[in-house]
Amino acid sequence: MAGRIEDYAIIGNCETAALVGRDGSIDWLCLPRFDSAACFSALLGDPSHGSWQIAPAETIVCVTRRYRKSSLILETDFETANGAVRVTDFMTRSDGTCELLRRVTGLRGRVTMHSELCVRLDYGSIVPWVTRLEDGRIKYVAGPDRLLLQSDVIFVNENMNSIAGFEVEEGKSFDFVLGWSPSFHDTPAELEVGAAMDAAADVWSNWTSRFTGAGEWSDIVLRSLITLKALTHFETGGIVAAATTSLPEQLGGGRNWDYRYCWLRDTTLTLYALLESNFVEEANAWQGWLLRAVAGSPAQLQIMYGVAGERRLDEWQIPWLPGYEASAPVRIGNAASGQVQLDVYGEVMDALYFGRQNGLKADAEMWGLQREMIAHLHASNSRIPR
């Protein structure tokens, strides 16, 4: 059974995102993109649908968590009767690859740890073919997807899962990397976790340095801005509404929608927050995304698009996942993409106006698109019977 929603923390690399529970289990992860099929779907079922837990094998006395400074590097401290350990989780990406990195560090005493990795591709439905490479890494392959597990400890196969047990002493660390790459590409090189962690910390430090402050609420506002940034795609400029699908509006209810797409309305509110806090670069990238996404007839403007501006977001249901706390159905895609909602015209115009008032670069092509949208609305209004 999945944990409580409030017990999950987000990590990400501005291409996708994972949810990490207080129990050290990663229960949701889509690779390589926000709207890709999940390889960890325990959030909508149980660990057999895909998850990766690293936690003490002993009775846990206390769990505390924090993000490292102004970053998405998550630190979870576990205390037991025998000592304390820290599990550090974060994500990176490189050319054609996407990585989930975990480091276990001994803080006090000696703690026995347990790790169980269950890779189930395509939303928990596909058991991958598993082999061990000559360098010791474990390879999981199904169709176009390849995952590679790099580890400082030895994993063995038990019941179609990868299992490891190890002990951590004060001052000692063990590193783990689970990397995605296309199965038809060359095998990527191993990663050095310490260097990757320093690089990720620098990226977030450089980004947050633009924050101008919000008085006594600065820490809370900055953390919210980091979360919004985590939901932006580094390459397309699209901003997704959420990293998850099918979390219910009410437990046990059927209003469970896929929010891994770019709503024009939601993005407008996100841009307000970013622009008012001196983050203009994201607004410029979104303007480019918008121009590509809505290109064509203004009469065909949609309320949402895919991460790269895709228009077809056909909705279907997954019968093998029971849903979060049995809140079925689990939906992939969103049929609301075909709805006509006139407010999005105003929201797009408002967002672009607000952006230009706050440093968004002027764009003649975008101005032409705005004029076409207004002309379309004017023509539509003139056809309404009086």
SSE map:
Blueprint: E1 8-12, E2 17-21, E3 25-30, E4 38-40, E5 51-56, E6 60-67, E7 74-80, E8 83-94, E9 97-118, H1 121-124, E10 129-132, E11 138-142, E12 145-151, E13 156-158, E14 161-169, E15 173-182, H2 193-208, H3 218-230, E16 245-248, E17 256-258, E18 262-263, H4 264-276, H5 280-293, E19 304-305, E20 316-318, E21 330-332, H6 343-357, H7 364-382
Antiparallel strand pairs: 1-2, 2-3, 3-4, 3-5, 5-9, 6-7, 7-8, 8-9, 9-14, 9-15, 10-11, 11-12, 12-15, 13-14, 16-17, 18-19, 20-21
Task: Give the structural class.
Answer: alpha+beta
Please tell me the overall pLDDT.
94
Summarize the main sheet. Answer: 15 strands, antiparallel
Helical segment tally? 7
Strand content: 25-35%
Helicity range: 10-25%
Gross morphology: globular
Poorly predicted regions? none
State the order of secondary-structure elements, H for helix, E for strand: EEEEEEEEEHEEEEEEHHEEEHHEEEHH
Distance between the termini: 57 Å
Rg result: 22 Å
Total number of strands? 21
Number of domains: 2
Tell me what the structure shows.
By secondary structure, the chain is an alpha+beta fold. The chain folds into two domains: 53-205, no CATH class; 214-382, no CATH class. 24% of the residues lie in helices and 33% in strands. The chain is built from seven helices and 21 strands. The strands form four sheets. It has a 15-stranded antiparallel beta sheet that branches. A two-stranded antiparallel sheet has the order 16-17. Strands 18-19 form a two-stranded antiparallel sheet. The longest helix has 19 residues, at 364-382. The chain starts with 7 loop residues before the first strand and ends with a helix. The mean pLDDT is 94.
